[in-house]
Amino acid sequence: MDGVPRVPEQWRPDDSAALRFSVLGPVRAWRGADSLPTGSPQQRALLAALLLREGRTATAGELIDALWGEDPPSQALAAVRTYASRLRKILSPGVLVSESGGYAVRLTDESGVGASLDLALAQELAADAEKAKATGDLCHARALLNKALSLWDGEVLASVPGPYAETQRARLEEWRLQLVESRLDMDLEQGCHAEAISELTALTAAHPLRERLRELLMLALYRSGRQAEALAAYADTRRLLADELGVDPRPGLQELQQRILQADPGLAEPSAPLAPETAAAPVRPAQLPATVSDFTGRTSFVTELSEVLAAASASEGQVMAVSALAGIGGVGKTTLAVHVAHRARSAFPDGQLYVDLQGAGSRAVAPETVLGAFLRALGTADSAIPDSLEERAALYRSTLDGRRILVLLDNARDAAQVRPLLPGMEGCAALVTSRVRMVDLAGAHLVDLDVMSPEEALQLFTKIVGEERVASERESALDVVAACGFLPLAIRIAASRLAARRTWTVSVLAAKLADERRRLDELQAGDLAVKATFELGYGQLEPAQARAFRLLGLADGPDISLAAAAAMLDLPVEETEDLLESLVDTSLLESAAPGRYRYHDLVRLYARACAERDEQPPGERAAAMSRMLDFYLSTAAGVYAIERPGDRLVDHLEPTEYPGLRFTEGSTALDWLYNEASPLLACVRQSADTDRLRRAVDLLWAAKDLTESGANSHQYETTARAMCDATRIAGDARAEGRARTTFTNVLLVSGRIQQAAEQAQLAMDLAASAEDAIAMSWAANDRGLTLMHQEQYADGKPFFERAIEGYDTIGNRPLEALSLCNLSRAHLGMGNIAMAVEIAQRALSAYLEIGQTLRLANGHFTLGIALTRAGRHTEALSQFSDALSVFGSHRQRLWEGTTNFRIAEVHLAARRPAQAAQHAEQALALGCIGGDRMQGTVLTLLGRALTMLGQVDRARACWREALNLYEQHGGAAQAEEVRALLTPATAA
Predict the structure, then answer these.
(1) In which element (H, E) is residue 826 found?
(2) d(CA 942, CA 226)
(3) Is 850 helix (H, G, I), strand (E, B) or coil?
(4) Which of 3, 11, 157, 699 has the smallest set of CB atoms within 10 Å of its CB?
(5) Which strands form 116-117's sheet, in the order they lie side by side?
(6) Which residues contact 927 (CB under 8 A, 6 or more apart)?
């Protein structure tokens, strides 16, 4: 060493790396990825003062005032020089410069390398957001503001002393709040009302006198259907301003209150449709099926419908137009509607929606299912789609407001199915096709579609087959279209087959059609006429195609995947795909999506009739259904196993002969389960009255995630009820015990505790009589849960202990850990808090040792509850955070909501009401295990948090809503608690 002080080697300037500074949090500096030491608090205060002057020079006197104010130390000037010298050594040459008796920070150094400051970047992003907002691009503006706000990292100029830092800290915090308000305003403009409530609740608690935040909260509550809370929020605001400042709310807030009282329609919906944050513009769906290139005739109908659609799009203020096409199956309703819709696309620039409502079959698509699909197509996230039909319909109309959208509702059952799916907005239009005339669809323009004229029918036939082949055999061609009954679908099938066979002549086809053995004995109106046209296509199939057509029609689901079809046909996937695609070519099968196929409802019925008539040996039909059930059971068991390592339930399920799919990654497995939910549950129901009953029940059990996700709960419940009835009728105690176990789970999730208790007891008795060890332990655990929900903790404890003993006997450690979790909850209810914590820790340790994924969340969740009761709030929050992460990754929405409620409980117990209210709002938005009664519990807690925040009127609105839920759905003790909260003495 030569005695000369050196800059440490790691801080020597590297001209190749740019400098970065931050002031929107702690004052920090980086060169590339390396953090630079910014020194003592006073040295950081000097750096901050220079950075915030944006390159302008600060004199020594100004810097002294900034660091120490009116009482500087005697050596203040020397200290400033020392701080500047130290910073200059750390930073690149030419960044901190001395000039005119002062100092400045230049964000471009001597080498020309630019430095960046987080504040400057935030200002640039905010300015760009204002420009995007001015052009109407709210999605992009909102994304820019979110990016700007993400630059804040805690308190501005954290731990920096001095009066200048204090002033700048206040200025920048005010600017941040203005940006937040602007972004929240755009959230509401885009329809994100429910999502904004949680954040606004926390912000109004943190900044109670900020009226703009209160105004946004009132608007978000009102648009979420919570009018009473919106008015209560105003009352809280008025009282707070009077008490704290002696003033009334500003005129804008008063005006909003009056508009809410008057239910002003202008407040009801946002001015811009909901769109995903990542999109620069609203999603523009284009779902119309392809129109046929050989569309023929129907000139008057095309003109009539086109004029109606054009008028609907062009006229301002005109009510949304509805045109309903009716006629027998195969008459060309869909072809005409699609053709007209494509012609009208330019009149509806915001998109076109399409759905096959499957109204001709026994299981028409539920309107709420269609609304969910439409909302997703319009850019709504799954998490933002509500559960009920009414809420989905309202969100659908809100999303369409201000857009010009054409909706094609194909194959509707009746007007009741259609009404919730109508846009309801001027500038939009709906085309509806159905086998029935919708005379009860108010305001609809009705069109009755008949068969083609002979001339039109011959034109269609000629376009498909070719002019050259038809011209020389015109009479035979007329015989063909006449045999088809002039039905467009029948003509298309026959002509397509002829076009595909160059060795055939038209007269050969006419001769085939003349053979009535190939058709119905006579043509009739309605379904039989349609069936005759299907007979034409089916009779021309090769043997392998015909077999596939017959067997696949046996499945009840709305569609079928390629893998499931391969199982039914007992063929390799590649060969199955070739067969199915050839059936698509004949129009006897539809390609719903890549790898998925479906029948028109009437074609499915015809295919089943063919199977009953033609399939040999007769047992092959049952064998095909058995293979499909095996495929679903084997695959669902694999999904269950990958989600729950070590859980041996799959070892106790009925054996299968046909294999299923195998997954190596949990999210892929869950994708399969949720995508296949409808066909899978349909397969269970279809197996109810067969010798496949036990396997069907086990499939329902293995797919239990479908009810806990909240997305398929209704379908799952319907199926569980059906299986309970079928197993009871069959007199199969083992199968019935398992079926009632699945039904108990449905009832527990939805909060119907008394019914769950009855079913759990039945399941226990049946499992015992059948000596079904795993079902007996499962049912005992469920019986304990019902008692625990009824606050009979001591009575529930023995059932959990019985379940633990049973699971231990059969070596199922994950389920043993699950019952340990429940035993911990029972001890909590009995006041044995230390024991509850110990048992919960044992359960969590077991899950960790096994390597569980999904159910590991139950361990964290249970330990969090126990730690909350023990007053160990920080540890409890850590456990709940871990649980929330797992539940979210496994798409367990109801469990996410329940965990948010528990987090809210912890914050309330720790007297952090703002955080408690925020998480309670998130629980309400997600939903919770326990149904409506649990919603009442969340509202009760939210009211308590709001009371602590001084928002008494809004709190009372929450309690009134909770009381209504308890009175409707049971919960006498909870109802009495809420009544006490609502009494003036308690409120005081």
Answers:
(1) helix 813-829
(2) 14
(3) helix
(4) 3
(5) 34-36, 28-31, 19-22, 116-117
(6) 387, 710, 893, 894, 897, 935
Determine whether 833 is exposed, middle or buried from the number of CB atoms within 10 Å of its CB (0-12, 13-18, 19+). middle
Q: Which helix (H) or strand (E) holds 19?
A: strand 19-22
Ranges 256-265, 658-667, 723-732: which has the least confidence: 256-265
Among left, alpha and beta (phi > 0; psi -120 to 50; other), residue 39 is left
**Strand pairing category for 19-22 and 96-99:** unpaired
pLDDT at 361: 56
Lowest mean pLDDT among 289-293, 435-439, 865-869, 908-912: 435-439
Whole-number Å distance between alpha carbons of 215 and 207? 13
Q: Indicate the length of the chain as a whole number.
A: 988
Are 956 and 987 in contact by the 8 Å Cβ rule? The answer is yes
In three-state secondary structure terms, 281 is coil
**Helices H, strands E: what count in the chain?**
46, 15
Q: In the numeric block, which tokens belong to residue 307?
A: 């004029």
Amino acid identity at 951: Q
Bridge partners of 103, per DSSP, are: 58, 98
Buried b (16+ CB within 10 A) or exposed e, 757-781: bebbbbbbbbbbebebbbbbbbbbb
Burial label, 918 (beta-carbon count in 10 A; 0-12, 13-18, 19+): buried
Q: Do 481 and 457 meet the contact criterion of CB atoms below 8 Å apart?
A: yes
What one-character DSSP code corresponds to residue 801? H
Lookup: tokens for 193: 């009302």
Separation of alpha carbons 781 and 4, rounded Å? 76
Q: How far apart are CA 797 and CA 85, in angstroms?
A: 71
Per the listing, tokens 């109801």 go with: 894
The arithmetic mean of pLDDT across residues 307-320, rounded, is 67
587: left (phi over 0), alpha (psi -120 to 50) or beta: left
This prediction has a pTM of 0.55
pLDDT number for residue 315 = 56
Q: Is the peptide bond before 617 cis (omega within 30 degrees of 0)?
A: yes
Strands 28-31 and 34-36: antiparallel
Partnered with residue 355 across adjacent β-strands are 409
The dihedral over CA atoms of 60, 62, 66, 68, expressed in degrees to the nearest 10, equals: 60
Residue 261 and residue 160: Cα distance in Å, rounded? 48
The runs of H, that is alpha helices, within 466-505 are 467-471, 474-483, 488-500
Burial class (CB in 10 A: 0-12, 13-18, 19+), 849: exposed
- If one counts every other C-beta atom within 10 angstroms of the C-beta of residue 625, the result is 20
Structure tokens at 298: 């129907």
